[in-house]
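Title: Prediction job returns without error message
Component: structure pipeline
Severity: low
Priority: P3
Assignee: unassigned

Description:
Job completed but the reporter wants confirmation the result is attached to the right record. Sequence as submitted:
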Amino acid sequence: MTPRRILSALTAAGVAGVLVAPTAAAGPTGSASAVTTPTGTRSLAAVLTADGNQFDRSWYDYDIVTEAVLAVLDAKPTSKVGVLADGTVPLTAFLPNDRAFQSLVADVAGSRLWSEKAVFDAVAGLGIDTVETVLLYHVVPGTTITAKQAIASNGAVLTTAQGGTVTVRSYSRYLPVIELRDQDTDDRNPFVNPFALDRNKGNKQIAHGITDVLRPVDL
């Protein structure tokens, strides 16, 4: 699907401009484990930018999502994405690594780009409103969900800051397996990376790395 058709699909579905303010009621439903809120107030924005947020040759960190957040806030300073910089607000974020964005762009454009900067430029080319919508679909406001709690929450439905929902499918083998089922019913679902769990644990804002970009509509 072309970038133009993706933008049209997001707009037609009524999600490109739907921004839901974080609320305490936006946590998981149907979870098997009570969710408690830690007291630390370091924000996820501080964690994401701690390494200087430079494009590099490592496809398994979070440079592209960091730059996407900064680009949205530069263009729209009052965007709800700014909640990532307010460590007093509890939330859970699922962070696609750089490889996830590379795969998304390859799926959209039909060819794989080989530099993080080129991938970011392709993502930004979808438009700030679309990038904002997709980012908010990766944020679950009002609740701090650890990996342990997510594993115990098979079937939970998470309401995101974008307004859409993500369903958790989880089980445990040698390592925890957590699948996130998004609104794109005929494409690969992201999995939480078992080696990128509980980023910023102990704080009200927590993040887990994921293998693909969550999609808020069926593309």
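Comment from assignee: result matches the submitted record. Confidence is low (pLDDT under 50) at residues 1-26.
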